[in-house]
Amino acid sequence: MVRLGQGGAPQRFDVEVSSGSHFAWLRTRLSLDRTLMAWVRTAIGSIGFGFTIVQFFARFSDMAGVAPAINPMTPQYVGLGLIGAGILSLAIAIWQYQRGVRYLWSEPYRVLGGISADRAEQGEVLAPALALAILLTIVGVFAFAAVLFRMI
């Protein structure tokens, strides 16, 4: 037996409201947050390490008695690459997170979340991890610009 959802499209799953399905929904929601935080940790490491490489080799080349580098721009290129990879990973993480949350708040599963549709649409279900990811993306863009403009 195939159940039809909105618009006559076949519905993938039967949604039965119970404590078990509610807690399964919550576990899935929390796993989205954990995944986002793992992306954020990786991106922070990449952005921080890239910026550190640039700063370290800039200070290193200014020290007395140090031979000039064969290619002095290499640390800047590597640093920009790492900072860019961190920014890109944050952008992908934010997109993936929002897509997953939208799916969980879609029509058949919204009832399992335990929050009314009005409250969900008003933004009362935003996660602090998402705000942190957005803030760190902005910080990463500033770090990228700082290294890039220092090169020019």
Structure description:
This protein has 152 residues and is mainly alpha-helical. The chain has one domain. Helix content is 73%, strand content 0%. It is built from five helices and no strands. The chain starts with 18 loop residues before the first helix and ends with a helix. The relative contact order is 0.16. The mean pLDDT is 83.
Overall shape = rod-shaped
Number of helices: 5
Helix content: over 70%
- How many angstroms separate the termini? 66 Å
The total count of strands amounts to: 0
SSE order and pairing:
Blueprint: H1 19-62, H2 74-104, H3 107-113, H4 117-121, H5 128-151
Helix pairs in contact: 1-2, 1-5, 2-5
Please name the defining characteristics of this protein.
73% helix
What is the gist of this entry?
The protein is mainly α and 152 residues long. It has helices at residues 19-62, 74-104, 107-113, 117-121, 128-151. It starts with 18 loop residues before the first helix and ends with a helix.
